[in-house]
């Protein structure tokens, strides 16, 4: 099952197509970049899971979502500095046999996340 994410733009009521996302491993000290991607038209990684069953390890991870840049490309007038620039989610993986889905619902002013299925 692995690790996946999905981003919904709650301001416009649509997937956050084109949003940049970075995935880091934070186990063992300094964050280590695992991959950078741009979300597809459905607000997901074009290649499927960010990490598959073999790649996912017990430990801690960080997803960084480029919220400010995304809303700027959508033509949203943001204050300077923007209220949200990057949204960083730190989370742990305790059981690699389970699927870890980390969705983000976001606007220029708020965000919400949860462990999905």
Protein traits:
single chain, 117 residues, mainly beta, Immunoglobulin-like, 4-stranded mixed β-sheet, 1 helix, globular
Compute the CA-based radius of gyration.
14 Å
Topology-level CATH name? Immunoglobulin-like
Strand arrangement, largest sheet?
Answer: 2-1-7-8
Shape: globular
How many domains?
Answer: 1
Tally of contiguous helical segments: 1
Q: What about the largest sheet? A: 4 strands, mixed
CATH class: Mainly Beta
Q: What fraction of the residues are assigned to beta strands by DSSP?
A: 35-45%
Number of strands: 8
CATH-level-4 superfamily name:
Transthyretin/hydroxyisourate hydrolase domain
Structural class label: mainly beta
Order of SSEs: EEEEEHEEE
How is the secondary structure organized here?
Blueprint: E1 3-9, E2 14-15, E3 20-25, E4 32-38, E5 59-66, H1 67-73, E6 86-93, E7 100-106, E8 111-113
Parallel strand pairs: 1-7
Antiparallel strand pairs: 1-2, 3-4, 3-5, 5-6, 7-8
Can you tell me about this structure?
The protein is mainly beta. The protein has a single domain, classed as Transthyretin/hydroxyisourate hydrolase domain (Immunoglobulin-like). The protein has one helix at 67-73, and strands at 3-9, 14-15, 20-25, 32-38, 59-66, 86-93, 100-106, 111-113. A four-stranded mixed beta sheet has the order 2-1-7-8, with no helix packed on it. The protein has a four-stranded antiparallel beta sheet with strand order 4-3-5-6. The longest helix has 7 residues, at 67-73. The protein is globular.
């Amino acid at each position: 099952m692995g690790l996946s994410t999905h981003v919904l733009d709650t301001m416009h009521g649509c997937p956050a197509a084109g949003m940049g996302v970075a995935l880091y491993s934070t186990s063992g000290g300094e964050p280590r970049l695992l991959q950078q991607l741009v979300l597809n038209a459905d607000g997901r990684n074009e290649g499927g899971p960010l990490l598959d069953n073999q790649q996912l390890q017990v430990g801690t991870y960080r997803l960084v979502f480029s919220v400010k840049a995304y809303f700027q490309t959508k033509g949203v007038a943001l204050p300077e500095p923007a209220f949200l620039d990057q949204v960083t989610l730190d989370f742990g993986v305790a059981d690699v046999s389970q699927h870890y889905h980390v969705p983000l619902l976001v606007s220029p002013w708020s965000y919400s996340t949860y462990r999905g299925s």
